[in-house]
Specification:
single chain; 237 residues; alpha/beta; binds magnesium ion; binds adenosine-5'-triphosphate
Length: 237
């Protein structure tokens, strides 16, 4: 296990939201804002202490909350106004970042990697000055081809010189090879786990997939946790 691999001790918990978390607006979901502030503080600590710059947010199964977490985390980080944040829609199969931010899919990651477009021209502004988006773009190619492309490492280096933190929204690592490939190229993977949904072995398989392909698990987010007794009591246990 590498030194960075031992960092999966970063564990965050996000409550089950009262309202659907995706809003299409720049605002942290009501009732969850405090959770996202804690999560963003943990990420900034990893960035400051371990030089973590690009992170793939992923999961074991569909619908665990990856897009919701990646987008709201990007917003929470950008609200600190100390860093330049980029959120990339790395889910070329089912891109959801455009819908979340109310922008069109247009051109983006796929066109940058294939060399058809410059990154600068593909970046989308948001209502937060230090948060930009890169949509997935469009391509007929198999998604895994983008992360094995010779240009991808150069592209990551270019991102690193422009942004302090880069978050990738990805499809589940247990189901798609492109996320496995990406996990080995970024500095770390943040694994979203929907509370009370999957058996432990399924989640461990996702973790093993990251590690066995040379990736680093930087933390886990337990999403949609329900508190059967008041949250304040859990905090004092
Ligand atoms: N903490 C939460 N509280 C309430 N609803 C949530 C929470 N997190 C996510 N959701 C809802 O769960 C649904 C699935 O979330 P999301 O699209 O983020 O999952 P995903 O892992 O990105 O799915 P996919 O693998 O299909 O891309 C959405 O309707 C979202 O609003
Ligand atoms: Mg998604």
């Amino acid at each position: 296990m590498t030194e960075k691999a031992s960092l999966d001790s970063m564990r965050a918990t996000l409550k089950q939201g009262e309202e659907p978390a995706a809003s299409g607006k720049i605002g942290l979901p009501v009732g969850l804002a405090e959770d996202y502030i804690h999560l963003s503080n943990n990420i900034l600590a990893l960035h400051a202490g371990n030089g973590i710059k690009n992170i793939a947010v992923s999961s074991s199964a569909h619908g665990e909350g990856v897009t919701t977490v990646a987008a709201n985390l990007a917003i929470a980080l950008a609200r600190k106004e100390t860093s330049n944040i980029l959120l990339i829609d790395g889910n070329l199969r089912k891109p959801s970042v455009p819908q979340f931010f109310g922008v069109d899919r247009g051109e983006g990651l796929a066109e940058c990697i294939s060399g058809d477009r410059d990154l600068a021209a593909m970046l989308r502004k948001t209502a937060l000055p230090n948060l930009q988006l890169l949509t997935s773009g469009n391509s007929e190619k198999e998604p895994s081809q983008f992360f094995t492309h010779a240009r991808f490492q150069t592209f990551l280096n270019e991102l690193g010189s422009r942004f302090d933190l880069i978050l990738f929204d990805t499809p589940p690592i247990s189901l798609y090879p492109e996320t496995v490939l990406l996990s080995a190229m970024v500095d770390g993977v943040l694994l979203v786990i929907q509370a009370e949904r999957l058996i432990y072995e399924v989640i461990r398989k996702a973790k093993d997939k990251v590690l066995s392909h040379g990736g680093t698990l930087v933390g886990t987010v337990l999403n949609r946790r329900r508190y059967y007794i008041p949250n304040a009591i859990y905090k004092n246990l």
